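2024-03-11 09:14:02 INFO worker-7 job=invfold-0412 stage=load source=structure_tokens
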């Protein structure tokens, strides 16, 4: 699949430049087609398609497992990243005095589930950072003998800092700390291998770089961690015997399906199935290379225009996110919108997040629009 072929699957590219995939991605033609087919079936041809949809559920789990280098039995669906992180936060047997380490630049979804544990006597230690960048040494300094969990984002939502997950995983092993990762800002754009990185728990939603709908995500639970987590009970946490529904035997699945509490978001799974299919068709390595190239070109161009970057300049820590400061950032943001270019305002900073279907010409269009803003705002002679 060429870039030109791929771009045909995203019709918005015909008249706009979308570089805000760190917030929400557009839906491709295959995703929309999958949703329409599922809804038509539920609407007309196979209303009770509950059991008939099981193959798509299983195949999508297999695709998610392939995406992160895991086995399908270690993956379970979740409605979103926050819910997924709550499975870990609420599932551990916490004791007063236990601690959680988390960078002080995390998105709230990776903070509040653990801050909420303070009522149970758990303390949260915030790891210092500079412009959304933290060091391995700062992480190690934050770990104590009572630290139970280190939780980080694979990519920081604002700075775009790509954490050294393998080094952090090794550090957690050395200190006997559970390693938790919020993967929503990398999965679908950058490669990630949970086993190679020593990740114990991972949560992600599907509506950003994975380019599916909202309300569908997943968790990964390492086998070594599973029995340490108390799952919530619903009715799909274990085998269902449709002939004995009122005998109430509490039995959990032997794998990550035990964290499934109730009826799944089938429409969301249909969308995620199609989105992952397109991602794999394009090629995971190619997608990463394209994303990093677009972000690099954007960062270099913004630097030439004199905009100060928020985050790291280290290519090894690069991602699809490029964030800059500007003295009149709100006006610049509105100027870009008028030019058909969608970026994001976060913490009074301007964040760009291109992905693999964005073209070099779209990057140039965004840079030209930023440059033109300076001309528009300059005092007349």
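2024-03-11 09:14:09 INFO worker-7 stage=emit residues=381
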């Amino acid at each position: 699949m060429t870039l030109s072929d791929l771009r045909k699957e995203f019709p918005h590219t015909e008249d706009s430049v979308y570089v805000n995939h760190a917030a929400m991605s557009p839906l491709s033609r295959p995703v929309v087609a999958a949703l329409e087919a599922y809804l038509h079936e539920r609407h007309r041809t196979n209303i009770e398609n509950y059991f008939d949809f099981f193959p798509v559920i299983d195949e999508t789990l297999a695709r998610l497992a392939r995406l992160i280098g895991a086995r399908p039995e270690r993956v379970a669906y979740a409605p979103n990243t926050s819910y997924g992180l709550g499975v870990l936060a609420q599932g551990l047997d916490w004791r007063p005095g236990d601690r959680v380490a988390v960078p002080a630049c995390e998105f709230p979804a990776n903070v509040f589930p653990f801050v909420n544990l303070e009522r149970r006597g758990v303390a949260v230690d915030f790891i210092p950072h500079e412009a959304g960048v933290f060091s391995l040494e700062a992480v190690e300094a934050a770990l104590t003998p009572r630290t139970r969990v280190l939780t980080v984002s694979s990519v920081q939502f604002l700075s775009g800092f790509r954490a050294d997950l393998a080094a952090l995983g090794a550090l957690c092993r050395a200190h006997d700390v559970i390693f938790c990762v919020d993967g929503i800002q990398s999965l679908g754009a950058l490669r990630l291998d949970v086993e190679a990185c020593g990740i114990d728990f991972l949560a992600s939603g599907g509506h950003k770089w994975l380019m599916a709908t909202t309300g569908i995500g997943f968790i990964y639970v390492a086998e070594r961690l599973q029995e340490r987590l108390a799952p919530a009970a619903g009715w799909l946490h274990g085998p269902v015997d449709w002939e004995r529904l009122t005998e109430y035997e509490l039995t959990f699945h032997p794998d990550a399906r035990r964290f499934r509490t109730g009826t799944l978001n089938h429409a969301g799974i249909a969308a995620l199935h199609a989105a992952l299919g397109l991602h794999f068709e394009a090629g995971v390595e190619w997608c990463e290379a394209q994303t990093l190239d677009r972000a690099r070109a954007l960062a270099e161009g913004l630097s030439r225009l004199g905009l100060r970057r928020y985050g790291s300049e280290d290519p090894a820590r690069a991602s699809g996110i490029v964030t800059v400061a500007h003295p009149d950032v709100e006006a610049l943001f509105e100027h870009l919108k008028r030019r058909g270019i969608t970026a994001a305002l976060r913490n009074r900073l301007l964040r760009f997040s291109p992905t693999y279907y964005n073209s070099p010409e779209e990057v140039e269009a965004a840079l030209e629009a930023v440059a033109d803003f300076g001309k528009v705002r300059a005092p007349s002679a």
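2024-03-11 09:14:09 INFO worker-7 stage=report msg="The radius of gyration is 22 Å."
2024-03-11 09:14:10 INFO worker-7 job finished
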